[in-house]
Each structure stands twice: as C-alpha cells, then as structure tokens.
C-alpha cells in the first residue's frame, strides 16, 4: 500500500499555449434572431465572451496557485479488477482530537474544488464538531487517473472511495455528496455499512412510497397534500425531465462520439459545462474566473478533457448483484443514518416524504434558496447540517466510535 504524498498541480506551459491557440482558431455557430437565446442552449454571445476571457484574460497560473493552497495529496488505491488507481484528493486533517472522518464526493460537472468553501467552516471550535475531510477527484475526473478498461461502474467508484478512507486510517466514517456523489456515497453505504455510519446528501433522488414496501409512509403520502414549495419542486423536476436531461442521455449511451467534441474543442467543453452552471443554480452570481477555473480543471484533467462523461455509460451498463442499476441508490438502504438538504433549484426536487424512503432520516433542512452545487452555492447550509447532525445536541453525536470531534 502506497503512502499519501503531498501533490502540486502543475499544468505544463505547452498545454496552456495549445489551449490558447485552439481558442483563437474557434469557429462559432450561428443562432436564431430572438431575445431568449437560453431556450436553445448557451448563447453565442456568452460563450464568445468567456472563451475570449479564457484566451486573453484568465490567469490559470493564479487559479492553479489557489488550488495548490489546498492540502492536496495523491496515493494509489487498489481496486478489484483494475489494479492500483492513482488518486488525487484534498485532505484537511484536524488537530482536534477525535475529529470526525468525512468523505466529500463531488459529481458532474463539479470537482474536488467544491469542498473548498466547506474546509474553514468544518474545523470545529465554539462547541461545533470538527471533521477530518477527504475530498477526492473521482477516477476520470480532475487530477486522478484515467480508467482505460471498461466496466468501472458504481461499485468500483464506491470501492475506490472506501479503500481510500481505509488507507488513510479511517475504518469508520461519514459521507457527504450530491450528483454522482449521491450515487457513490449511497452505494458505499450499501456495500460497506460497517464503515459508512451516516451520509448527508444534497441531491435527493427518491420515489413515492408504496403500500407494499413502506405502508406507513405511503399512507402519510396519500393523506398529506403537497405544500406549495413541494408543488414547485415537482414542476422543477418535470422541467429537468423534459428540457434538461438530453446531456445525460448522450453521455449514458454514446459517450465516445461526444468525446470528439471535447477532445477537439475547448469551446465545446466550455459551452457544455457553462450551460449547466447557469441552469442548475439558483441565480448564483458566477464570476468569469469561477466558471473558467471549473472548466479548466476539466480541460487540464489528468484523464483528459473527455473521460469524465464515461461514468454515465459505465454506471448504466454494468449491473451487479448488489447494484443492478443506479436506481438502487434511490431505494431503502438500511443501517446508514441519513441527513437530507432540500434546495428549490436542484435539478430534481422531491416532496419530503419521498426522501424518507431512502433510509433512516435523522436530519432534514428545507432551504428557500440554493441549487445543484450546494457546497459551492450554500456552504453555510451544508456545514450547518453537518454540525447539527454530529454536534453535541445532534442525533448522531459520537456516532463514530471514539470520535467526539471536540
């Protein structure tokens, strides 16, 4: 087993210069004459402005230096059938005795960087619990290794994260995640319930309770009208189903064909991700530097600018006995205590009673503002949820044996 080593992000100058040449040579599409370009996707004017800023104004070296201020590490993690996988991760160790080990798992099109705003909020003190935070770049993302062998699906992602925690000395821990972080941490709880003692999720993928499996919840669902916020949430979910998920169908069926666009054109990658950053957030005031840093992490990824989308295909085409489909993450998972954070501009927003079909829910927050990238948009909410769950007055105080976090 390899030991974790400090890691410094250092993109070669040649890669940066090549990016700038490609940006300069970009041909842009036409668009319809309308004041509402967003109905059709990312507007040409927005993407042109961002691309020109990427080429002439954005300072990757400055963004890289800020990334390198984080406690970055790397180590090899053995994954069954795939050998040693080189993993990059942020690892904020706590000096507080008994700090709670927490795995933070990102999704698409996010990255390890989403944990950045949480790090100072979860150091503990003033009666708040402290956390040992591990935030990996998932394989095929960020600065972790590209997987070239088919079949790296949800069980493998879950095993990678679990074994990383074990390798770092955390035999029992808790998790936080949204997007693919929802699926990965849920499957971790399914496969490793002796280790994953509790999970907090901010993308809640759940279904209405049924009388055959959960009669009490089903009765509650049948007799309790949806609140106005829940009705609006169902409308948001319907929007995503009809107008927002074409990307997922493409990435889950023919990822290689789409990969030609990302490998060839940085502007294609920019437009693809920028659309999601705008559509999936709750009027979050993205700066150009934020957008271009997020996209640059994908473009300069160790795995290349297109490997990230393969998770959609692999997760949907590699059923196993324990994980017959990714829908298993949206079903009841026993033993793992659960915290839920509801946000009105998540890509799917379910009624609260639906969330209770996922497991033993011990904490919920219902928030009036926030979207898909909750740790970035609302780090105050995510940190408070975790503090309320694991603090002295919380339902999971001292859930990790021998870990008080104070």
TrEMBL record:
Keywords of the record: Aromatic hydrocarbons catabolism, Hydrolase
Signal peptide per UniProt: none
The Epoxide hydrolase N-terminal domain covers which part of the protein?
5-115
Extract the GO molecular function terms from the UniProt entry.
epoxide hydrolase activity
Active site located where?
179, 312, 372
Tell me which InterPro entries the record gives: AB_hydrolase_fold, Epox_hydrolase-like, Epoxide_hydro_N, Epoxide_hydrolase
Please name the Pfam families in this protein's record: EHN
Top-level division of the source organism's lineage: Eukaryota
The biological process GO terms on file are: epoxide metabolic process
Give the family, as the similarity comment puts it: Belongs to the peptidase S33 family.
Q: Which PANTHER family match?
A: EPOXIDE HYDROLASE, EPOXIDE HYDROLASE 1-RELATED
Can you say what this protein is called? Epoxide hydrolase N-terminal domain-containing protein
UniProt organism field:
Didymosphaeria variabile
């Amino acid at each position: 087993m390899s030991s974790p080593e400090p890691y410094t992000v250092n993109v070669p100058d040649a890669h940066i210069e090549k990016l700038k040449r490609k940006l300069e040579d970009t041909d842009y599409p036409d668009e319809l004459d309308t004041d509402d370009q967003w109905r059709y996707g990312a507007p040409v004017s927005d993407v042109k402005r961002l691309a020109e800023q990427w080429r002439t104004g954005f300072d990757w070296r400055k963004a890289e230096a800020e990334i390198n201020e984080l406690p970055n590490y790397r180590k090899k993690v053995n994954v069954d059938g795939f050998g040693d996988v080189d993993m990059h991760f942020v690892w904020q160790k706590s000096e507080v005795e008994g700090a709670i080990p927490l795995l933070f798992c990102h999704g698409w099109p996010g990255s390890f960087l989403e944990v950045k705003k949480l790090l100072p909020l979860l150091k503990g003190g003033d009666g708040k619990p402290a956390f040992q935070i591990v935030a990996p770049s998932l394989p095929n993302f960020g600065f972790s290794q590209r997987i070239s062998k088919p079949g790296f699906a949800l069980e493998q992602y879950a095993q990678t994260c679990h074994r990383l925690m074990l390798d770092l000395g955390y035999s029992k821990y808790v998790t936080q995640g949204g997007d693919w972080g929802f699926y990965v941490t849920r499957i971790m709880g399914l496969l490793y319930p002796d280790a994953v003692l509790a999970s907090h999720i901010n993308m809640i993928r759940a279904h209405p309770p049924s009388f055959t499996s959960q009669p009490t919840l089903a009765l509650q669902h049948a007799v309790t009208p949806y609140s106005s916020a829940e009705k609006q949430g169902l409308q948001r979910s319907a929007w995503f189903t009809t107008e927002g998920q074409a990307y997922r169908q493409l990435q889950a069926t023919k990822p290689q064909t789409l990969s030609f666009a990302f490998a060839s054109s940085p502007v294609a990658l920019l437009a693809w991700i920028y659309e999601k950053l705008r559509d999936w957030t709750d009027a979050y005031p993205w700066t150009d530097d934020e957008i271009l840093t997020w996209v640059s992490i994908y473009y300069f990824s160790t795995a290349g600018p297109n490997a990230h989308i393969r998770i959609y295909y692999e997760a949907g085409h590699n059923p196993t006995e324990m994980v017959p489909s990714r829908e298993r993450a949206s079903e009841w998972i026993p033993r793992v205590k659960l915290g839920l954070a509801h946000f009105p501009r998540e890509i799917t927003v379910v009624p609260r009673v639906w969330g209770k079909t996922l497991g033993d829910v011990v904490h919920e927050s219902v928030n009036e503002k926030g979207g898909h990238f909750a740790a970035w948009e609302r780090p105050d909410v995510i940190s408070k949820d975790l503090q309320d769950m694991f603090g002295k007055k919380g339902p999971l105080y001292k859930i990790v044996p021998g870990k008080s976090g104070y």
